[in-house]
Each structure stands twice: as structure tokens, then as C-alpha cells.
Amino acid sequence: MNLARAWVAALPAYLWSGWGAIASLLLMVAAWEAVATLYGPLVLPDPRSAFATLLDLVASGVAWPDLSATSRRALAGYLLSVAAGSALGLAAGVSMTASMMSRPLVTVLMGTPPIAWLVLAMLWFGASDGTPVFTVFVAGFPVVFVGALQGARTLDNQLKTMAQAFRLPPRMMFFDVYLPHVVSYLFPAWIAALGMSWKVVVMAELLATQDGIGAALAVSRSHLDTTTTMAWITAVVGLLLAVEYLLLEPLKREVERWREPTLAEERP
């Protein structure tokens, strides 16, 4: 309860701190409007038409099944990649031998196009949720793995030795020495994997499923309905931004509170 109250109390300051992201989004919308005005609605509809179409889809209830299906698949594959990639990457980072042996495997995973994994997944899982979930997992896993491995390998040995010399308790050693350093590598990897998960799941749905945003994009493409296509693309971007800024970013700020300067440090 206290944590929830603290989160609600800090929400206005958090929203205000995101003015840069909001300004960037507004610039993107302005560029979208300019290109739509230049080339016309057949090539690119204006933002107002796309937003209005998306609102109609949401209000009529048509959008909810596809939005929930895509979110479920993307988050399932993403969470699997985060859990497996973080655990195995940290384990490999502890050992020089393990990190050297894992490098070619990670190179192969990162170098293989997601479309190749998608074809294999279609053969293995058919037109089920397993196909997009597996494709998202195998696309995001190496990104998270590399971030976790680098976080474990680059731990400052002098800081570790000093902490051991002062005989810090194991709990303090973990939360004050290991965790802050590792998290600084993990969060960028998690965010990169999150963005990749939404792109990959839509591609997988486009080719392998009968529902979800990818399937809806296939229908709008067959009808040459550019406005509805942009509406679904806007929905994907909105879901991605919601997960990042409403879930990952507050979690990152809470974990990295140690980076905030104290009052003593702020005094000249």
C-alpha cells in the first residue's frame, strides 16, 4: 500500500520529466502530417484520419481481440527472452570460459534473420500461438544475453575487492555493489528486446496466424486501405510506448535511485 501511494505521489513529477519524449512524438506526428500533405491520402493518410479510424475500431470493439492477442504473444515471448537471457547471460559472464564458448552461439542467433526462425516455427508449431511466441523469444534472447553477459564481465574488481575488505554483508554486496552495475547493462538490453518483440510478433502474425494486429494488417493491405493500416500501426506503437514508459521506465527509476545526487552532493 505504501509503495502504491509513493508511486502515485511521484507520478506527476515522472510525467513532467517525460516532456522530451512527448516533444519527440509531436515532432514525429508533425513530420507525418507534412508527408501526408505532400503525397496525399492514398500514399499516406494524415494523422487525424488514422487516429479517428483507430478510435472507431476501439469504440466498436473490433480492435480489442486483436490488441489482446498481439499483446499476449509479444509479452509472452518477451518475458521468456528476458528471463532466460538474463539468467544465462549472468551465468556466462561469471566464467571466462563460458563467455568465450557462448560468443559464436550468440553471433549465430543474432545473425539469423527473424523470418528464418519464423519459417521454422511455422513448421514446428503451425498456426498456433507457439509460432509468434517462439519467434519473439529467439529474436530477443541474444540481445538480453549479451547485455547480461557484459554487465557481469565488466564489474569493477577494485570495487568488489574494497567491498570484500570492508566485509559487507552478502545482501548489501548484492544490492549495493553487483545489482546497480548489472542493471545499467540489463535495462538497455531489455528495452531493445521490447522494441524488437513488437516488430517480430506483428511480422509473425502477418504470415502465420488468423488474428492479431499482423493479421488485421494483412486484411487492410488486401483491401488497399491505407488509413486502417496506419491505424493499426499506430496501435502497435502505442502499445509499445505504454509498456516501456508505464512499466519498464518506472521500474528502472526505482532500481536506479542510487544514481540521484544526495543533498550533500548538490551543495557547492
Which terms summarize this structure?
268 residues; mainly alpha; MetI-like fold; disordered C terminus
What does this structure look like?
- By secondary structure, the protein is mainly alpha-helical.
- It contains 12 helices and no strands.
- Helix 9 (170-208) runs parallel beside helix 10 (213-222) and helix 9 runs antiparallel to helix 11.
- The longest helix has 39 residues, at 170-208.
Shape: globular
Distance between the termini: 37 Å
Order of helices and strands: HHHHHHHHHHHH
Mean pLDDT: 82
- In the CATH hierarchy, the third-tier topology of the domain at 66-215 is known as MetI-like fold
Total strands: the figure is 0
| Fraction in beta strands | under 5%
Low-confidence stretches: 262-268
Summed up, the helix count is: 12
* Largest sheet: number of strands, sense, barrel closure: none
Relevant CATH superfamily of the domain at 66-215: MetI-like
Helix content: over 70%
Helix vs. strand class: mainly alpha
Query: What is the CATH-assigned architecture of the domain at 66-215?
Result: Orthogonal Bundle
Describe the structure in brief.
With 268 residues, the protein is mainly alpha-helical. Helices cover 85% and strands 0% of the residues. It has a domain at 66-215: MetI-like (MetI-like fold).
